[in-house]
UniProtKB/TrEMBL annotation, chains A, B:
Pfam families linked to this entry: Dak1
Keyword vocabulary terms for this entry: Kinase, Transferase
Keyword Kinase: yes
Any one GO molecular function term: kinase activity
Domain DhaK: 7-331
Protein source organism: Paenibacillus polygoni
Protein name in UniProt: Dihydroxyacetone kinase subunit DhaK
Coiled coil: none
Amino acid sequence: MKKLMNNPTNVVDEMIEGYVKAFPNYVKQLEENKRALVAVRQEETNKVGVLIGGGSGHEPAFMGYVGYGMADGVAVGNIFASPSPDPIVEVTKKIDNGQGVVFIYGNYAGDLMNFGMAAEIADLEEDIKVERVIVTDDVASAPKEEMHKRRGIAGEFFVTKAAGAAAEKGYSIEDVVRVAKQMNDVTRTMGVGLSPCSLPQTGMPSFELAEDEMEIGLGHHGEPGIEKGKLQTADEVVDRLVEDILKDMPIESGNKVAVLVNGLGSTTNMELYIMFRRVEQILSSKNIHIHRSFVGSYSTSLEMGGASVSIAKLNDELAEMIDFAADCPMYVQR
Amino acid sequence: MKKLMNNPTNVVDEMIEGYVKAFPNYVKQLEENKRALVAVRQEETNKVGVLIGGGSGHEPAFMGYVGYGMADGVAVGNIFASPSPDPIVEVTKKIDNGQGVVFIYGNYAGDLMNFGMAAEIADLEEDIKVERVIVTDDVASAPKEEMHKRRGIAGEFFVTKAAGAAAEKGYSIEDVVRVAKQMNDVTRTMGVGLSPCSLPQTGMPSFELAEDEMEIGLGHHGEPGIEKGKLQTADEVVDRLVEDILKDMPIESGNKVAVLVNGLGSTTNMELYIMFRRVEQILSSKNIHIHRSFVGSYSTSLEMGGASVSIAKLNDELAEMIDFAADCPMYVQR
């Protein structure tokens, strides 16, 4: 697939350089490590730090969500690969205000190892209290009995938002972690893949799928899904995705939820709105109230074709976090 | 190309339905015409109305830019086709507060005809003062001597923002028009196409390009560009785009500009940041100050591959408009 790039080995560094140049009032690169970015704040804060990160290729995640109401810093990995502990530690040192730092990342082997090592280093060498919240929203990636094996995908946006809002409100690290874990506990995502992306360095497609096929539950890095089949209509696909979510996490009539219909890269907003239409039909038929909606490409897999539906079951406190303002280069909420 | 949709003939109506359901606090469909959407405002206003619109397929444009600081209403056409006069007139009637309404749309035959007819109807039948601002930012679409023949593309975002901010500030209709026209006069866009989109109803690609080719100046609906050639590096492409812009509209050292690096659909944010990196290098080498940057898929051609660079040369008043807050479903600025 054609890409607008220079030397493929430099895509991540050039991307970061461009991003920081585009939003100098929002983010800066640390001198200690160029894969470590922190928010530029107009005023000193005394709040808990929120750190996000993971592999590149999911833009606007994760870099795009550094700013007021979201994360204070991000560690950026290579494409679809965890950042090494170094940038994580550097960001941690920078964003700690003595209240500790919460790491939020998806449940992937590389991230578990590197964020884990970084947490240990920050604790032992820098005496910074670090807590970790691991995102596991992808219903298709493991059965309910093995929830801890589930991968993190688009729902990480909600978890970051919850932690970021709680930290901004001055919550203690224990409460930021409580709110973020609670958001993860009530967030479920189901996705569908239609077409692969290609990695800049190899040009190879991330998976294969016939021109008339789709795959339910395909992972954000092309991990195999749970069912391959003929492409169905948007309504049929959404019916399936929402059904799987509600089977996994029953939601009672009268409850309120946040909904994210997320595009994986090359899927148009038009398709996402058409999908949202069906999500809304299903939920309103069950008297489930949509508290706030998010529709767009919030967490991508380069130019993969496909989309996911995330539903978060909200209590009043979580709804407050969802409604909290944000001001990041790639996500602003008034 | 695979699409998540139901009956292809219903994509636009289902898209609008989903969009309005997703953002009920922002937009509502008029009973008089379902292709006519207006902003939901918490308070009565007495300002000049700003109306945008055009064909569908450019999402998040134009629908996404209805809200505070941007447009008060939008008329939605079929895919790549102008809205008919009816929804334009209905929106006009709804958003007029006695101060008149400014129409902003791209320079396309269908839009010229339909917005023109709607303006006449609003004037003659409803006694509403209507002014029209036609966007002509696409440098590649006609030579400088025939500027009035140029098409409108991504730069329409800046023109809408200028008009929306001016209206919000309480400017008279004459001044809203003056500011919007001025923004159009100082905005230039150059784009590159890499891969076609396909229309939902036909499934046919919008143009053809070999796997190793790109086309400079390709239009937003697949209109032929000015040069087809081998795909070059991001830096080479950006050098060419910015050079053409600066040749067309010289910018002196010390001037300030707004920059929009816009993705056409399936081009990743990663590539857009890499492109922005080069734009910044070129402009800073010329001592041109980037006042504010916009990077993302602001105006697409369904899932077309490619991107454009828009540069607006700002005076102090236009910079104020660029900095003005916005609160729309698809664009928020604090």
